[in-house]
Design goal:
About 15% of the residues lie in helices and about 40% in strands. It is α+β, with helices and mostly antiparallel strands. Strands 1, 3, 6, 9, 12 and 13 form a 6-stranded antiparallel sheet that branches.
Length: about 200
């Protein structure tokens, strides 16, 4: 039991959310160094290198989002793990169109694995000083067989879904709160599919 408690405490402390202010235009950037650290609980994201280093082995989820520039661009970003491309994030717009492109990735990492975002030539994204439309984030979902949300994972055990019945007060008429709860549920369902 003490080991599970330690894993929960350690796992719950690993999350980051960083943003890039300015434009990333048409050149390769490897890695993108996000210049605004909003949250870095566990200090696993290095603001000098642009790299996240897994402080413990476990299952992590990462999200990269970019507001695309107007005009014709061949947008592609890669999520890199230890120098290997693990995910390609494509987005195409033309003319005066723009959109916010969001990509999700989940993987079981070992302690010390490094994760970052690489921009390929021809990509273009922009963000103002307040918009936070180029972002990179990650969270440790489970470590040492224990979910950071409670319960065990793997080895035939069930996925740790929260009980919505006893936490009805968490859901309000606020769309934002409902969306947040839905995102947690979707993340957990994806976790279950991968682990089963």
């Amino acid at each position: 039991m003490p080991r599970q408690t330690a894993a929960k405490q350690q796992g719950a402390a690993v999350l980051f959310y960083v943003a890039y202010q300015g434009s990333l235009r048409d050149i390769q950037i490897n890695p993108i160094v996000f210049n605004q650290v909003v949250v870095n609980q566990g200090s696993a994201y290095d603001n000098d290198t642009g790299m996240f280093t897994a402080p413990v082995s476990g299952i992590y989820q990462f999200v990269f989002a970019a507001q695309l520039c107007r005009g014709d661009h061949n947008n592609m970003w890669n999520l890199m793990v230890n120098g290997d491309r693990r995910m390609a994030c494509y987005a195409q717009v033309s003319g005066l169109d723009t959109t916010l492109n969001t990509c999700y990735y989940m993987e079981e990492l070992k302690k010390g694995d490094k994760v970052w975002v690489k921009q390929n030539v021809g990509s273009c994204a922009w963000a103002s000083t307040t918009s936070k439309t180029i972002t990179f984030s990650g969270v440790l979902l489970a470590s040492e067989g224990v979910s950071t949300l409670g319960g065990k994972y793997g080895s035939g055990s069930s996925c740790p879904l929260p009980s919505l019945g006893r936490n009805r007060d968490m859901v309000s008429s606020s769309v934002g709160r409902r969306a947040s709860l839905s995102c947690v549920t979707v993340t957990l369902l994806l976790c279950c599919l991968i682990l089963d």
